[in-house]
Design brief:
The chain has a domain of 85 residues: Tetratricopeptide repeat domain (Serine Threonine Protein Phosphatase 5, Tetratricopeptide repeat, Alpha Horseshoe). It has 23 helices and no strands. It is an all-alpha fold.
């Protein structure tokens, strides 16, 4: 009898001990002392290896430490021990999303909703994945269901607004951004994205005011500087635009900026041509855009330096080679210009503007045959390219083919009257 009582006492003491350790671990985690929390949770797992909630808590700590594979292993063990553990599915799904495995994330969120059909967090998380997958209608449906259960969560309005914005439903997007700001007036991303919606509606002054507000609340919002720079350019403030690009480029090199987690897909007025826009591509586009503005101000050396920096980051951009070639032409440095146009055409063989620009450079060095071939090829690809008609007319006039030159001049005039002239360089 005494032995039995002693065994029960030791058992109760063990339970009390591991529960106390678990509570201490949770307290350390809440205070941000993750390594201490992990040490305690490892002890708890050794004492209580069959408790799913212990693995769940350790999985959360592994996740917060960035140890994603260990987090998935712990959440999976928690699910094995407690098959209806909705929060474990939710958190494993969020880790899969962090790893870029969006299919596995969706599968986990579906399972979580089977066990917790009113979980606003799960609908919100699945909506974010749909937003990343550009499945905007599904994203909107999930954010709407999440808001039914949690109507005061500002970021749900923000994310649904981003989905509406991507579908060009600007009034609905602005309404959601307003609702987000009603819940959290310091939410920089809501100001930023509302500014984008106003910009798409050509209300540039209101758009810039929103970008200003966004940057007041978040000085590390790189997209805010980049998009405000483009808006300033549209309003003719080229120097202001360059200042914003300068700030964005400097910011991207700040270690504090690099630590920021990406919560939702970044949105922008003038995104890269790439389907998947990562930080390297965004940086390359910033250099490209600043280079174009510097060229417009006559700073050809600065423009060439920026285009070169852009190409170091993303060396397969035909547009950037074309733009740098045009700046070399501004400097009357035609041989490197031709090399750049050649490179642009090797990357994009149907690039009509690059043929036209190479033709102009060839004409300048006396290669009239090559120039005429390039202008003709450019017009085969784009019959509305006014600049190519004008350049070919000038070359034909040099060759004393007056009739053909007049015909090309007339075509160029007709196109200009129809407002079809093309701009060869765009920021």
């Amino acid at each position: 009898m005494r032995e039995s009582q002693g065994t029960a006492y030791r058992s109760n003491a063990t339970v009390m001990h591991w529960k106390a350790l678990l509570n201490q671990a949770v307290d350390h985690a809440r205070r941000g002392d993750l390594q201490a929390a992990l040490t305690l949770l490892n002890q708890v797992v050794r004492l209580q290896p069959e408790d799913g909630k212990v693995y769940y808590n350790r999985g959360c700590v592994h996740r917060d430490l960035g140890q994603l594979e260990a987090a998935i292993a712990d959440f999976s063990t928690a699910i094995y021990l407690i098959p209806n553990y909705g929060n474990a599915y939710l958190n494993r799904g969020n880790v899969h999303r962090q790893q870029g495995d969006l299919g596995a994330a969706i599968a986990d969120f579906d399972c979580a909703l089977q066990h917790q059909p009113t979980s606003a967090r799960t609908y919100g998380s699945r909506g974010l994945v749909y937003l990343e997958q550009q499945q905007y209608k599904r994203a909107i449906a999930d954010f709407t269901r999440a808001l039914q259960h949690q109507p005061k969560f500002a970021k749900l309005y923000l994310w649904r607004g981003c989905s509406y914005l991507q579908q060009r439903q600007f009034a609905a997007a602005i309404a959601d951004f307003n609702a987000a700001l009603a819940q959290d007036e310091a939410l920089a991303e809501a100001y930023h994205n509302r500014g984008l919606a106003y910009a798409y509606l050509n209300n540039y002054y209101q758009a810039i005011a929103d970008m200003d507000k966004a940057l007041q609340h978040d000085a590390y919002l790189l997209e805010g500087y980049a998009n405000r720079g483009m808006l300033r350019y549209c309003l003719g403030d080229t120097e202001g635009a360059i200042a914003d690009y300068q700030h964005a480029i400097a910011l991207s090199q700040d270690p504090e900026f690099c630590k920021r987690p990406c919560v939702a897909p970044s949105l922008g007025l003038y995104r890269s041509d790439e389907q998947s826009e990562g930080p390297t591509i965004r940086m390359a586009e910033l250099y490209n855009n600043r280079g174009t503005l510097r060229a417009e101000l006559g700073d050809t050396q600065g423009a060439i330096a920026d285009y070169t920096a852009s190409l170091r980051l993303v060396p397969n951009k035909a547009k950037t080679y074309n733009n740098r070639g045009l700046v070399y032409c501004q400097q009357e440095d035609y041989h490197p210009a031709i090399r750049d146009f050649n490179q642009a055409l090797s990357l994009q063989p149907d690039y009509a503007a690059a043929y036209s620009n190479r033709g102009s450079a060839r004409s300048r060095i006396g290669d009239t045959v090559g120039a005429l071939q390039d202008f003709t090829r450019a017009l085969d690809l784009d019959p509305n390219l006014t600049e190519a008609y004008l350049s070919r007319a000038q070359t034909l006039a040099q060759l004393h083919d007056t009739a053909a030159a007049l015909q090309d001049y007339q075509r160029a005039l007709n196109l200009r009257e129809k407002h079809c002239s093309r701009v060869l360089v765009t920021p």
